[in-house]
Amino acid sequence: MKKIGLTTTVPVEVLITAGYRPVDLNNLFITSDDYSKYIEIAERDGFPKSLCAWIKGIYGACVENGIKEIVGVIEGDCSNTKALAEVLELRGIRVYPFSYPQSHRKEDVEVEIKKFMDIFHVSYEEVEVVRKRLNRIRRLAGELDRLTYSHDKVSGFENHLYQVSLSDFNGDADEFEDELETFIMKVKKRDGSCKKVRLGYIGVPPMTIDIYDFVERFDASFVYNEVQREFAFPRCEVASNIYEQYYDYTYPYDVNYRIKEIKKQIEDRRIDGIVHYTQAFCYRAVENIILKDKLNVPIINIEGDKMNSLDARTKLRLEAFLDMLGDLKEVSCV
């Protein structure tokens, strides 16, 4: 089975139907034992130091691992992906474009997915068979998510790890399904570990993975991972077809559409505060202005760059934020 790289979540059903093994280049980059080498490869090839580390990491992971074909999302994700795609094409890598239309009209989403299916010569009927198969796994991810926020049996990091993996099903849907089923059976036997402060994590998945363990030192836990959960398509069961499913996917569209779902999850999960993670040099940092205005719980914005661990300043800011949330919760209980 041929490998094909992804710059972000795309209609993976189309690629699997066409006989490809999808590889999320983000996951390939950040899970590497020597992730920094991918950034160094990109900078050696001319990528500026003032560019987002994710873009450089994706480039390095693609080149270093011999990925010959990728899908580049040129609308609805990182604004630098178009330039990345052009450089990869220069390196002899075939790039297939995909767009999440800014209009966010159902008919426009349908047009883009039909164009994507035409590129890979697959039919709607074939794709729907695969979608229904993958949605069985996505329902398992929904069960894992409920075990996180309703029963406190799954840590914030475990929740992050399994949901973020649904962007490409770790390259093997059958194997990933078995792994997820086994994990769910295991955690159901755990005692719940309820923390004092319930956090929501919003924004792109972090490079600083240690954030999950760090907050737990202060009697806090993440019970919501926004974008990771969207990768798992939590509302897939109400979508009657692939067009509706990707129309309902919040991440690629405007921030106000995301906010509607975030507000719902804040209420359903009884969230005390929000950590908004953004990557250095990313336009999404500006969205923090809107998020702070629209969300009705305290929010802190933290920024990552090349490091895969929290720096001292960010730790201090997070500690102060968690202390404040703990104090607010005590006051509200009096």
TrEMBL record:
The keyword Hydrolase does not apply. GO terms for molecular function: hydro-lyase activity; iron-sulfur cluster binding. Belongs to the FldB/FldC dehydratase alpha/beta subunit family. Its cofactor is [4Fe-4S] cluster. It comes from Vallitalea guaymasensis. Pfam families: HGD-D (PF06050). The keyword Cytoplasm does not apply. This is 2-hydroxyacyl-CoA dehydratase. Keywords: Iron, Iron-sulfur, Metal-binding. Gene3D superfamilies: 3.40.50.11890, 3.40.50.11900. InterPro entries: FldB/FldC_alpha/beta.
